Each structure stands twice: as structure tokens, then as C-alpha cells.
Known about the structure:
disordered N terminus, about 180 residues, 4-stranded antiparallel β-sheet, about 40% strand
Amino acid sequence: YENRALVLSPNSPVPLGNQTQATFSYNGEYIAFLNEDTDNDLKDVFDLYTFNYEDRNKFCNASSEENLVTYSDSYRKIDSDIANIYKMGHPPEIGLDYEWHPTKNIIFYIKKEPTKGKEFRYILSYHDLERDDGSVQLLVSTGTLFYPSISRDGQYLLFSFLGKPSGTKFENIPSDCIN
Length: 179
């Protein structure tokens, strides 16, 4: 690479900030990562992004004079305020905060969303990058959900749970599965 500086504006479609937990999709077409917006006053607030790896060379070879908006569609913000290990107070090596499907370009994650006061709800969702018709909610809980994991055959999804079952409410789940 030549000696150059690439300056991005705060309104750039390219995510700025601390990036962590980068992983490839099953076929290597996409990279997912969490991005902490360092311009935000809230600490440990991470957004989930994907990057189309096929566009890597075009993006890396862009000159500072070139308009990077041309390559902005290589990045896709999947969702914001992802439940993450930093908010849980866990060491970073304990688990990933999202999970790729083993045979499809589908990513599973948990969003932390404020409700009232200092209460939150946790939403287990997925996003199919091929269809790109938005995220789909699978489960909503008043108890803390984190570390989604999918079976190798792609048939089963599980997650860790923190909370007292008697005070926790689950939505979008059959009642016979709660007991």
C-alpha cells in the first residue's frame, strides 16, 4: 500500500470505531463484526455489521480522492445495540455475541432494547443476507439472553439465559416449550 491517509467523515457509511469478533460466513462471502461507535457517549454499545468480502480489493485500493460512497453498499448494518460480552461483564474469550448459520448466509444475534425505566427486553433475531428483507424476531424475553449458538446441521438454535425464570416473560414461543 502506498503511504496515504484515508479520512472518513462521521456520516460515512463505512463503520468507524472499535471493531471486534470478526467472523466469516459459511462460504466466506461475508464477514460479520461488532462495531462500537466511539463517537457515542454510551460505552459498550455495539452495532452488528456485515461486509461483502468480494468487494474487499476494490475497497482497499480506493484512493483518498476516490469517493468511498461507491463502495458503501459493501457494508450492511444489520442491527444496533447488540447484547454483548462487555455489557455482561464477562471476559471477551467466553463466547460470541452472534452466530452464522452453518450452510446459509444467515446471521443470528440478540438485540438489547430498552422498555421502561431501566428495564430491557432481549430479542433473539436472525437476518438472511441473501433475501435481505430485514431481521426476523424469533424470541422476545424480559430475562437476559446472550451467546446464541446453532447446531452443525442448522436445525437447532440455543442461547444462554440469565435471570429468574419465575419473573421472566417469553414471547413468540409455544407455551408447551416454557415448562
